[in-house]
Design a protein that fits this description.
This protein has 10 helices and 10 strands. By secondary structure, it is α/β, with parallel strands linked by helices. The strands form 2 sheets. It has a 6-stranded mixed sheet with strand order 6-7-8-3-9-10, sandwiched between helices. A 4-stranded antiparallel sheet has the order 2-1-4-5, with helices on one face. The longest helix is centred in the last third of the chain and has 16 residues. The C terminus is likely disordered.
Length: 243
């Protein structure tokens, strides 16, 4: 069963067609990745699903219901959360205050407290720094906080925009380990990544985007050994590693 179904989605910015009629599915309980170069339309896709940009045509079904015309708050209420590119934490607020902002639509204080403790279980460093201003955290810790903030809305679908961007390889491994843990807990993940190798190893299914179109799709394993994908996105080292 598909949790998210996108059909013939088009987005225009002025005279530029950023998305040219893309279609893809995100199965319930799966990890799906969109990979591609800068400017391919990956972030625009997530922003359209989140209600942050208005598509010019197409359909977005979430749990079988059309959400294309809903505003961003209603979409969060439906169970979709996004961890934005560049982390976008509130630097002058504490770690704890940032997490509470992620729960702004929730009313049950006990469940909010439980959610905070769950985030601290996933990210013990955030608990250690709960009263520290978010702007003083390292890049990796800010990414953990951004993920934790997204989890505070108890999403059914967590969309992540470049979670490994600018992070050291060891921290990237930690982030992808957490993505797998969240998926094991039942959260469906839609992942945008320029680190195609890590993304395709984590994802059950992937789509390659080029200039507003989906050009290749397949399982993560299929795309890892696809020659066109290897040449364009995985680099020489990855080419050697998958032979």
């Amino acid at each position: 069963m598909n949790l998210l179904e996108v059909r013939d989605l088009k987005v225009n910015f002025g005279g530029i067609e950023a998305l040219k009629g893309i279609s893809f599915d995100v199965p319930q309980g799966g990890i799906v990745t969109l990979i591609g170069a800068n400017g391919a339309g990956k972030s625009t896709t997530l922003r359209a699903v989140s209600g942050l940009v208005t598509p010019s045509a197409g359909s977005i079904l979430f749990e079988g219901q059309e959400i294309l015309k809903l505003d961003a708050q209603k979409i969060v209420e439906k169970g979709i959360a996004m961890v934005p590119e560049g982390r976008r934490v509130f630097p002058n607020l504490t770690v704890l205050e940032n997490l509470k902002i992620g729960a702004y639509l929730r009313k049950d204080k006990q469940k909010i407290d439980h959610g905070i403790q769950h985030v601290y279980t996933l990210f013990p460093r955030l608990k250690e720094r709960s009263w520290q201003p978010a702007g003083t955290l390292s890049g990796g810790e800010q990414q953990m906080l951004a993920v934790g903030r997204g989890l505070m809305s108890t999403p059914k679908l967590l969309m992540m925009d470049e979670p490994s961007l600018g992070l050291a390889p060891m921290i990237v491994r930690d982030i992808f380990s957490i993505i797998q843990t969240l998926n094991d807990e039942g959260i469906t993940v839609l992942l945008i990544e320029q680190n195609a190798n890590a993304a395709l190893k984590a994802a059950a299914y992937g789509y390659v985007m080029e200039t507003g179109r989906i050009t290749i799709e397949g399982t993560g394993e299929e795309l890892l050994v696809n020659q066109a994908v290897r040449d364009a996105y995985l680099g020489k080292a990855a080419n050697r590693s998958v032979k």
